[in-house]
Design the sequence.
């Protein structure tokens, strides 16, 4: 009898075989003007890439409340400062987020309830050392989400050559259709890009159109 396929030699990544639903906990307060996202280890998201035998690159935590969503990220083990350019958001080291406030994970083209945001630990300001937060379009979307101004988003970072921490928050006003009481599930994925360490995604990764296809995203359940 042939041995069972391992994640390294399987034609289909194990994550493709499952539909994931992950609980995200409530936090109040969710953000501090001084400290950023106030999230301890109990808010850590599971690393689904473990199923594909991929080494996690970052500790990523998430929380919610009626005012919006927040994340805290730590990337360590680096040998140089992260490469970030405000003029090249998609190519920069940092965190990209995809959020569907209607959790329609059975469609292949984004709706107006689907949002894409990017947060960088540096690359902004006159010295290119300030963190960056911005909205991005989703390719092939049936309808784009409402445009927002970058100042509607919140971002803080601490950067050294060996590691960085990134806090970011998206207020409810920047999430069309966000209604935790009436719609406590979200479609969601992220991509943590790092030119030195690689790529970490939440649900499906390389080889799948997760950047534009909501059916590639997992589902979050907002719990108290």
Sequence:
């Amino acid at each position: 009898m042939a041995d069972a396929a391992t994640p390294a030699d399987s034609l289909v990544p194990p994550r493709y075989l499952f539909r994931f639903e992950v609980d995200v906990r409530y936090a109040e307060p969710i953000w501090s003007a001084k400290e950023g996202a106030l999230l301890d280890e109990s808010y850590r998201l599971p690393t689904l890439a473990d199923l594909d035998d991929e080494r996690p690159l970052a500790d990523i935590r998430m929380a919610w409340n009626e005012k919006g969503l927040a994340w805290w990220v730590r990337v360590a083990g680096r040998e140089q400062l992260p490469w970030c350019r405000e003029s090249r958001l998609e190519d920069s080291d940092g965190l990209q987020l995809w959020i569907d406030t209607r959790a329609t994970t059975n469609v292949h083209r984004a709706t107006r309830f689907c949002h894409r945001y990017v947060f960088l630990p540096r690359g902004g300001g006159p010295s290119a050392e300030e963190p960056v937060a911005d909205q991005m379009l989703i390719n092939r979307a049936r309808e784009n989400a409402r445009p927002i101004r970058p100042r509607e988003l919140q971002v803080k970072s601490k950067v050294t050559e060996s590691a960085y921490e990134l806090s970011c928050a998206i207020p409810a006003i920047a999430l069309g259709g966000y209604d935790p009481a009436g719609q406590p599930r979200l479609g969601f994925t992220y991509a943590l890009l790092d030119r030195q360490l690689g790529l970490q995604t939440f649900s499906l990764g390389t080889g799948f159109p997760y950047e534009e296809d909501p059916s590639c995203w997992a589902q979050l359940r907002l719990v108290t």
Remarks:
- Residues 1-8 have pLDDT under 50 and may be disordered.
- The chain has one domain: 22-223.
